[in-house]
Each structure stands twice: as structure tokens, then as C-alpha cells.
Design goal:
By secondary structure, this protein is α/β, with parallel strands linked by helices. Helices cover 56% and strands 12% of the residues. Strands 6, 7, 8, 9, 10 and 11 form a six-stranded mixed beta sheet that branches. The longest helix has 24 residues.
Length: 534
Amino acid sequence: MISLLIVDDERLLTDALKLEIDWGALGIGSVHTAYNARQAKEAFDRERIDLMLCDIEMPQGSGLELLAWVRENHPSTESVFMTCHAEFKHAQRAMQLGSFDYLLKPVPYDELSRVVGRAADKIRESNERNQYSRIGQFWSRHQPLLAERLWLDIVKQAIPANPAAVKKAAEERNIPFDERMRLLPMLLCVDRYRKSLTIRDEKIMEYALTNSGEEMLGLKGNGLLIRLADRKLLALLPVERDEEDWLEQCKARCEALVASCLQYFYCDMSVYIGREVHAHELSEMVDRLLDWDKRNVAVSNKVFLWERRRLAPGAEDIALPDMNVWSVMLKEGRGEQVVGEAEAFLTGYIGSERMDAENLYRFYHNLLQTVFYVLKLKGIEGHLLFDEADSADRFQRAARSVEDMIEWAGHTVRKATEYMETLQHSPSVIRRVEQFIAQRIETEKLTREDVANHVFLNSDYLDRLLKKESGCSVTEFIVRKRMLLAQQLLVKTDLPIGTIAGQAGYSNLAHFSRRFKKFAGVSPHDYRRLRSNR
């Protein structure tokens, strides 16, 4: 019989679930309860837990943290999440594809019974499969911690790529290993999410995707799915059969997973199936698959087979748009036309393997140089294109795919155009400079660079613009505004001169007095006296 652990800090709910559901009818032989993560870990130490029903929000450690501990220490335990957060509803159906579910509180008893019954069926099927499968026993008994670490070390070449070294490493970790075993590596890459996700959302999605991948690719008890890097998973499937259609069956399963990810996980995925290898050949094959993914910037939601890859003598240079024409259009304020032409050019290569990483990077480099050149002509600092997190993130992702490049190109050209349009109206620039200085007049270390950055201009260019409009440089303009404020305060208030100096941005009274005398021709004290006698 199956053993169940209910973990929830709401004691009444936990006790009610234990007493009011007919667990025996679902094949559950024993039900244990815990009210926090610490008690849950103690229960695992005392009992064999097959299934955990867990709240995601708890004091003394969240459900996700507890799950990470369970995966490491009790990898055969299945888990079902409960939460009050409706914003994760889009994950509910996605996670039903895998070995766990994600339920919103309050959970109807009939729905909970169906989920637990399905999980119990899966546990029983897994136990039966492992009982009769030799390779299944090997993988499930040691998955995921020991086996995952061994295979990660092989992939990352922490273990030398030769049969003797791999066998020795397996023996040292007490993992049974047959050097004759062949593996089929499959690289699963999430290219992008179609919905905006928080870091927490994405972690839940990644866990759901892992479980769904294990289920749909037939890896439960007969393979392994490990995380290589952000949005990249590696499936290792032992090759037990030599039938001609076996590879096609694997491809069909991968295609079903890709379709499910697009529908339920809101993400684009590419899968790269390598050739059959022995363990010591694995790292080289995985490196080739990773390189293949890096070069693929235009095709998503597809399964690629290594033995059917397109063999080409070298990258084919694609004719790029004339950046000289685009630079003229940008200078003339036709940014939207540039965006439209860039989108049309790039969109034409979505789904085409002709657009590889090298060609996409050439476009990226050429467009960036063009935008920088035009901004420099206008006196605008190019680095201001990346002055906030969203712009910097788009810049980092731009060359990963054609779709990322379309987003970056539109964002960058529109931002550059906005800066240039602001600059065309120099009176508005002067007003913004005056407002910025007035708001920070008490700041002693107010520099021309601060002012220039605020209006997105090169400091030398702003000096020239300000001299043309007002006859003085930025620094002189700041000093003038400070002195005019001091004059007003000397005449209209009886504040001490030291206080007025501070209000004008000077902490040193002597320095303020010298500046004031140079500006007004008399000392602050004499200026107040002379004005008061009028």
C-alpha cells in the first residue's frame, strides 16, 4: 500500500483532509501529517513516504524548498502542490501532464481524490515496471542524486572521456555501470516563454516541464532528465532495442512534448536528438548538440535529428539591408520606417535555417553601429540606450534568436528616435535643464555630467547647446542659478548667511562668499545691507 504525507500549516485543513477522505479506496494505506517543513523532514526520517501533498506557502520553509530537499533525499516520492495563488492557474493544466499536479485552494474533495488516485496509479505502475526492468532498476534506484551527478560530471568532462575512467568513477560512487551500455542523448531547449513570468513562476514551470518530460519521453524508471543550464535539459535514454522505428518513436514523443509545451507551458522549445553513444563519448556529443542549438537562431518548436542534420561547407552570408540608407532615415527622424524594414527583413527568415548565428550577429553589429553613429552626430551618449534593466536585458538576448532580435531592434531604434526628437526642440531641453538644476540646487556636487545624463546628451554637446541659447556653459549655468537663489533669499528673508549658503549648495561659507562676490560684485552681507536700504 502507498504511504501519504500531508504538509500544511493550516492544522484544521490538514486534520480534515486526513479524516474526511476515503484514502483506502484510493490505494493509500497510511496517512501522516506535518504542519511545517521541519516536521515533514522528521516524518521522512521515520516513515517511507510515497506521495506528498504539500502547501506551497508555509512558515519555516516554503513548499518549493521542501520539495528540493525531498528530490535530493527521497527521489522516488511523488508530490502534489496546493496554493491560494490564482495567478499560477496557467501552470495547473501544464503540471497535470507530469507526475504531479498543482491545485488551487479551497480544493474540492472529488478533485483532490482524482489527483491522488492518478498519482497512486503512477506510483504502482512505476514500482511494477522497476521490478521487472533490469535497466529500469538501475536508473530508478540511483536517480536522481547520485546518477545525475555522475552523468553531469561525464558531460562536463570532470571525468576523463575514456571507458576506464568512467567505470572507475561509477564504482567509486557505488553506482552499477555497464560500459557496453549505449545512450541516446536528447537536448531540450526552451527558446522563450510566450507569457511574462516572475522568477518564481519560471521555477515552477521548469519543475513541471521536467516532470512532463520524464513522463512523455518515457524516462520514468528507464532514463534520466537532468538540468544543464537555464532553460536547457538533457535527456539520457538507454538504448535497449535495435528496431529501425525506435528512433522515430523517440522523435514522435519529442514532437508531442514540444506541442504540449507550446500549448500548456506557453513556451517555444527545440529538441536536438543526437546519435547513440557510449558513456565516454557522451560529452563530445552533448557539446555538438549545444553548438547546434547556439547556431540555430531561426527555427523553434521542432525536433532535430543528428543523422539528418543539414551538412554545409560553411555559413552562407546573407545580404543584409543597406545600413547607410537606414542611417539617413534615422537622421531624418524616420525611425518607424527603419523598424518596419528591420522587422520585415528578419521576419522573412523565421523558420529558415539559412539565418544562422553568424548572419544574425552581423545584422546585430551593423545595426548597433548605425544607431551609435547617428546618436554621436546628434551629441547623444550611446550608452544611454542601455540605461535601464529592460534595455540591458534586451541587449543581452538580442543575438539568441531572430524573434529576440526583432524585439531588440524595435526597442533600440524607437528609444534612439525618442532621444533625437527631444533634442530637436532645444527650448524644451533648456527647460528640462533648468528644472533639473532647480530640484537639486542644494546638492553641492551637482556636475555638468549629471545634467547631461538627465537630458540624454553628451556633456560637451550640451555645453555648446546651452552657450548658444543662454551664453554660458552648464557649469556656469549651475553657478548662476545658485547665486540667483542666494540673492532672493538675502533680500526676502532674514536667514543667516550660512543657512543661505547651504540652501544654494555650498557647505563652505568662505567659498560661497567668494563665489557670490565674484557674481554680484559685493559680499553677501553688503548685498543684503544695500538692498535693505532701498
